[in-house]
Design brief:
- By secondary structure, the chain is mostly helical.
- Helix 3 packs across helix 12.
- The chain has one domain: Up-down Bundle (Amino acid/polyamine transporter I).
- One of its GO terms (molecular function) is transmembrane transporter activity.
- It is a multi-pass membrane protein.
């Protein structure tokens, strides 16, 4: 019998994957720094702040910045739960295999179905937003046709980089990380130190956004300012089989993504607010896209042009990371036989060791959606409205699955562990998630039924189609991959390592 001293402190990557039922077929060329860069460029505080700055100020005024703290703290709890899960299950695909091993096949199929469509729509939306920066940089008139062509260009360039392999993905992600840090922290600090036009007390001044009503209503209405920012950290786990020592490194990369992303967003958001010479006009909604004006007034024409280069780089890197994460989820789905054309989706290039076919899908469907948006520009709002809520729903399905397993006696066996705090953190993460979903799903007050309920309508359509396919085609019956085995896997890992004590 093997003594405790003869057992390793933790399993090596290949053996850990073998315990989970898979072979080690990818190149593990992604470092901790590269994995963090992937999650950070997906989270992309530059994209989030730029996209929602005007909306946040017009709805909640300068105090809307406090949502960055609130949501950052809540999503940090979620990332800690994810950290324990991925530390035990460092498998490609993230949300899907985690939900499967924590609950079951049909549960995981629905979680992944909602998540993959939210990701695909997000790829389209980020590419569309990025095309505006690219048009400004290149001096093109932002017509619908120009927007379509530049959107497709961003998608194809990201696809070609992803085709080249994990090393190039990691390199460009690191470049994108540098661009993000310059664009959000660097510019934010410059604005705070040298271009401040407002006092810090403005972050406690609603500037009249509540009108004759309660400011509480206005503040909760601005919650999207934070909710849109703090997802993307889960992408660190989507590429788990391409990371060296993923059970240790990915949880750390997730936490770093939340913390650095939050600090970056704070510097950026506060910098733009305090440097705005016409803040009251922005809060009043008179300026639809205020950031270019702020940059032009503070950085000058040349400085604003340099910022555009940084911004386009950040957007390209964000699309790249989104494509990579979506393709690994599709690969994981296909490897378990859970989708049509599963064998085709699960093929890995023998040269670059990336799932090329899954990457093609992760590029082509967003491209088709972009064409539909070109035909009907109003469609973008409708198809993207459920994206953030869909991602939060998928997150909370994993958090709920983890809490269910803990109640049944699961003690996570990966090298990243919260110990006795795990149950409390898990419960708090679920409570936060329910609160966040309530805020995202709350109907508007425009008196237009479609507009007010579009978030739930979008999510409902995706969920109903997914349920119809699930019960008609029964993809769960086509797969014999492991499910609901969190406790058994934890016991097996402990049997093979020195961590035999059940915490």
């Amino acid at each position: 019998m093997t003594s405790d001293q003869d057992r390793p402190a933790q399993l090596d990557d290949a053996e850990h994957l073998k315990v989970l039922g898979y072979d080690d077929t990818f190149n593990r060329s992604m470092s901790l720094w590269a994995n963090f860069a992937l999650g950070f460029t997906y989270l992309s505080p530059l994209v989030g702040v730029y996209s929602l700055f005007a909306l946040a100020l017009s709805v909640g005024g300068p105090p809307s910045i406090w949502w960055i703290f609130i949501v950052g703290a809540g999503q940090l709890l979620v990332s800690l739960v994810f950290g324990e899960v991925v530390s035990q299950f460092p498998i490609h695909g993230g949300i899907y295999p985690w939900a499967r091993r924590l609950w079951g096949r049909r549960y995981a199929w629905m979680a992944a179905w909602i998540y993959i469509w939210a990701m695909i729509v997000t790829i389209t939306a980020v590419s569309e937003y990025g095309s505006g920066f690219a048009a400004s940089l290149l001096g093109f008139e932002p017509t619908p046709t120009t927007t379509l062509l530049l959107t497709l260009a961003l998608l194809v360039i990201a696809l070609l980089i992803n085709f080249s392999g994990t090393k190039w993905l990691a390199r460009v992600a690191r470049i994108g990380l540098a661009a993000e840090l310059v664009g959000v922290i660097g510019v934010g600090l410059y604005l705070l130190i040298f271009q401040r036009k407002q006092e810090f007390g403005v972050f406690f001044d609603s500037m009249g956004v509540e009108g004759d009503g309660s400011y509480g209503t206005a503040f909760f209405g601005a919650a999207l300012a934070g909710l849109f920012l703090f997802y993307g950290f889960e992408a660190c786990g989507d590429v788990a089989e391409e990371v060296a020592q993923p059970a240790r490194r990915i949880p750390l990369a997730m936490i770093m993504t939340i913390l650095v992303g939050g600090v970056s967003a704070l510097f950026s958001f506060s910098g733009y607010v305090l440097a705005a010479p016409n803040l009251q006009e922005i809060v009043s909604g008179e300026v639809g896209d205020p950031i270019p004006g702020i940059l032009e007034a503070t950085l000058g024409g040349v400085g604003a042009k340099i910022f555009l280069v940084v911004a386009v780089t950040a957007f390209l890197s964000c699309v790249l990371s989104l494509q990579a994460a979506a393709s690994r989820l599709l690969f994981s789905f296909g490897r378990d036989g859970m989708l049509p054309a599963s064998r085709w989706l699960s093929k890995v290039s023998p040269n670059t060791k990336v799932p090329n076919n899954a990457l093609i899908v992760a590029c082509s469907i967003p491209a088709l959606i972009a064409v539909l948006v070109w035909l009907n520009p109003d469609l973008l709002v409708a198809v993207t409205s459920f994206a953030v809520l869909g991602i939060y729903v998928a997150f909370q399905l994993v958090v709920l699955g983890a809490l269910r397993q803990r109640i049944r006696g699961w003690k996570p066996a990966g090298p990243f562990s919260l110990g006795r705090l795990g149950f409390v953190v898990n419960a708090l993460a679920l409570a936060y998630g329910v609160f966040a979903m309530f805020l995202l799903a709350a109907p508007g007050d425009s008196n237009n039924v479609f507009t007010d309920w579009i978030v739930l309508i979008g999510l409902g359509v995706v969920a109903l189609i997914g349920l119809a396919y699930l019960f008609a085609a029964r993809p769960d019956k086509l797969s014999d991959a492991p499910e609901g085995d969190a406790i058994a896997v934890a016991d097996e890992i402990r049997r093979r390592t020195r961590s035999t004590t059940r915490r």
